[in-house]
TrEMBL record:
This is 3-hydroxyisobutyrate dehydrogenase. It comes from Ruegeria atlantica. It catalyses: 3-hydroxy-2-methylpropanoate + NAD(+) = 2-methyl-3-oxopropanoate + NADH + H(+). Keywords: Branched-chain amino acid catabolism, NAD, Oxidoreductase. Residues 156-281 form the 3-hydroxyisobutyrate dehydrogenase-like NAD-binding domain. The keyword Oxidoreductase applies. InterPro entries: 3-OH-isobutyrate_DH-rel_CS, 6-PGluconate_DH-like_C_sf, 6PGD_dom2, 6PGDH_NADP-bd, HIBADH, HIBADH-like_NADP-bd, HIBADH-related, NAD(P)-bd_dom_sf. The gene is mmsB. Pathway: Amino-acid degradation; L-valine degradation. It comes from the Bacteria.
Amino acid sequence: MQIGFIGLGNMGAPMAANLAKAGHQVLGFDTAGVAVDGVTQAGTATEAVASADAVITMLPNGAILRAVADQIIPAMAKGAVLIDCSTVDVDSARAVAEQASGAGPLFVDAPVSGGVGGAAGGTLTFMAGGSDDAFAKAAPLFDIMGQKAVHCGEAGAGQAAKICNNMILGVTMIATCEAFALADKLGLDRQKMFDVVSTSSGYSWTMNAYCPAPGVGPQSPADNDYTPGFAAELMLKDLRLSQQAASSADADTPMGQAATALYEQFVENEDGLGRDFSAMLPRFEKRGRS
Ligand code: NAD
């Protein structure tokens, strides 16, 4: 397949490299002029997509996606598929889907879970929204870049699934961290806390797989001085998207709202910027009740 790849950052570069390694012709474009093994650099976004059967975008946010879509959709062949793997707001995903349906290309919103490690290892999970035809056309590429792809529904459903998942993640990380800080103050050993909770009804991915307490549970960013992993500011971005979606859908999400406010405080007014999102634990450790 001829593939256009727009946005060769921390995630996009390894994803594009995996497609090239699998034998596809990949023409990449990034405004920062990034070079990626096996990927030919295009001079413009439109050049990258003009003769592509599939185009993948991996961009920072919805505004940038919309601007790039304005450029590339008119240049794409009818029947080609545009796969947006960025995490963006549901409204932007639906707007780009609408624009594509008027112009010719198929569209799938397909945000990912699995982070930079998953992108490099080809083990991402894709949550996709779009027509059956669009999903079928994108599926062989999901197989190369990931280990699982779930077709969640019509356009926007992939972003909806991603935002809901990450709202649970943010809320759960905070709950896990505040429980560890409370356990400390109650004199409970952290290893004992892990041994109990990880096999009791309080278990979660944040406790069992990504434990925020250093030296406890499997290796995690906590064991590396909270070097991200998944940065607190990216968690904040996703929580804000959840709250934007909740407002636009008139959904009551008090825990999501509280988690958004806490990560906002942590990133913007405290020392959260550039630290892993599990560094909420040392934040709680330092604080008292008031
Ligand atoms: P990144 O900032 O490393 O990469 C984004 C790239 O897009 C940059 O290289 C930038 O130069 C390029 N870019 C910006 N504007 C452009 C334009 N107009 N045309 C072409 N290129 C442009 O970000 P990332 O970590 O690779 O994340 C990309 C997306 O994936 C984001 O939406 C993020 O939320 C999502 N995501 C990231 C992770 C993660 O762990 N990093 C995990 C899951 C999802």
